[in-house]
Specification:
This protein is of the alpha/beta class. The protein has 18 helices and eight strands. One of its GO terms (biological process) is phospholipid biosynthetic process.
Length: 457
């Protein structure tokens, strides 16, 4: 991984002892693990455990968690001639969530199965990175020197957080280029039905078996592509907050991935052909993106408004079946359109939201965030009046057009509209309207709530 080595050297980063990329690394997993400790505890899921033979399991203590069966991509004709603009009437300040929460989990499962492109859920132990599974790993690995993650997002989050809490080393054997969390120090854990981000730590080593990564299910690879390519909406949101409120902003994470992004924008169709070179390039981009979060001391460089909407949809629908990257594809299109429309306004007039916090969320944390957001909105009017032309010009320099994102997702047959994930349109509009109050980050979702031209989507 040429770019990664150069970047780590350039940025003087030494977070991880080694990153090894080679063929058939999985055949030597026991010998690799023994370099870190004598008592090893390995976590895999029902899919990734198939990469190991019984001899390895006889030598290593392990836990195999349930895993959804990732079915190949759905029929492309389902998404022909789709309009990727947000549904009519879906704009901030238009609606509130109230008591119209709909539990559409069963409907979603049936819809996904009928379209033949969503995983079939396992049974028994949860296949999510739940706190219960984290605690199970902690208990079983009490006497171990090393925790080993053999899998993608769920397995890595479980091992990352469990090892952090137990103050043990862990190493990662990624099995798909599906997300940027392999090299981040955050873990996304399901607690009491809600996903929360927790501080964790980095693996001591990352071992990438090229044969496994290149032959991973296409849906997982494409999920990783969308998780990376939302860089555009992320950077716009983070820069907006910096320019309006003076919050900390670091250009380095985006500079480090620029060349990788440009190559992927040219070669993205090779992902569908399972090109080893391009998939490894994507894996490299995801690892660098993860390091960017370490540099940023948080997920600021990889998660902004698009992730806030995706997480808010999870809060409402409890939809943990569709892949993270598929949700982000939908919400990145929403954010890209929102950002373009707001940036096209010549002289926006600021009028802070009057949304009644007590009638929105039955959650004291969200009520507190919303109150803080209202204070933030009151601070930006003068800056926007004086500096909007310069601010909008700076942000536009880093944007990927919404139409370009839409075309790529359509070319790759990636879900990119709410209905593609069986999300109810009306419900999605309500969530977009209120997602700004679910996290203490100032994004274009906030700006949409306090611009008088409120129907901007």
């Amino acid at each position: 991984m040429y770019y990664l080595k150069q970047i780590l050297h350039q940025a003087k980063l030494s977070f991880i002892r080694e990153i090894i990329v080679d063929h058939q690394l999985i055949d030597n997993i026991y010998e690799i693990c023994m370099q870190y400790g004598n008592d090893i505890f390995l976590v895999a899921d029902e899919n990734t455990a198939k990469f190991l033979n019984q001899n390895v399991f006889n030598k290593i203590s392990h836990l195999i968690i349930p895993a959804p069966l990732v079915i190949p991509a759905r029929d492309a004709h389902l998404y022909e001639n789709c309009d990727s603009t947000l549904p009519e009437g879906c704009h901030p300040s238009a609606q509130t969530l109230g008591s119209s929460k709909v539990d559409c989990k069963q409907h979603t499962i049936q819809h996904f199965r009928s379209k033949n492109w969503i995983p079939v859920p396992g049974t028994g132990m949860t296949s999510n990175a739940s706190l219960e599974t984290v605690n199970l790993v902690r208990n079983k690995a009490k006497d171990s020197d090393l925790i080993v993650a053999l899998g993608s997002g769920t397995v890595n989050d479980i091992c990352k957080y469990a090892s952090y809490l137990e103050k043990k080393d862990y190493i990662s054997f990624p099995t798909a280029a599906s997300m940027n969390g392999y090299s981040s120090a955050n873990a996304s854990i399901l607690v009491d039905g809600y996903k929360k981000s927790f501080e964790a730590h980095l693996p001591k080593g990352i071992y990438i078996d090229t044969d496994i990564i290149a032959n991973a299910p296409l849906r997982l690879t494409l999920s990783g592509f969308t998780d990376f390519i939302c860089r555009s909406t992320v950077q716009a949101d983070w820069l907006l907050s910096h320019l309006l409120l003076g919050t900390e902003y670091n250009e380095l994470p985006f500079t480090l991935v620029r060349d990788l992004e440009q190559t992927l924008l040219r070669e993205y169709m090779q992902l569908t052909q399972k090109s080893t070179d391009v998939i490894l390039l994507l894996m490299e981009a995801l690892l660098v993106s993860g390091f960017g979060m370490v540099i940023s001391k948080g997920s600021y460089s990889a998660s902004q408004g698009e992730h806030m909407i995706a997480h808010a949809m999870e809060l409402v629908t409890k939809d943990y079946l569709s892949l993270h990257g598929e949700k982000v594809a939908v919400t990145a299109i929403t954010m890209a359109n929102l950002q373009e429309k707001i940036l096209s306004i010549q002289n926006p007039i600021i009028k802070p939201t009057t949304l009644n916090v007590e009638h929105v969320f039955d959650n004291s944390e969200f009520i507190k965030i919303l109150e803080q957001k209202q204070i933030m909105q009151q601070k930006i009017g003068g800056i926007i009046y004086k500096e909007w032309n310069n601010i909008s010009s700076l942000i536009k320099q880093n944007l990927l057009p919404a139409k370009q994102l839409q075309k790529m997702f359509e070319d790759l047959s990636i879900p990119h509209l709410p209905e593609h994930l069986s999300w109810n349109k009306e419900q999605y509009c309500k969530v977009v309207d209120l997602a700004f109050a679910t996290r203490d980050r100032f994004t274009f979702l906030d700006l949409a709530h306090c611009i008088e031209e409120s129907k901007i989507l």
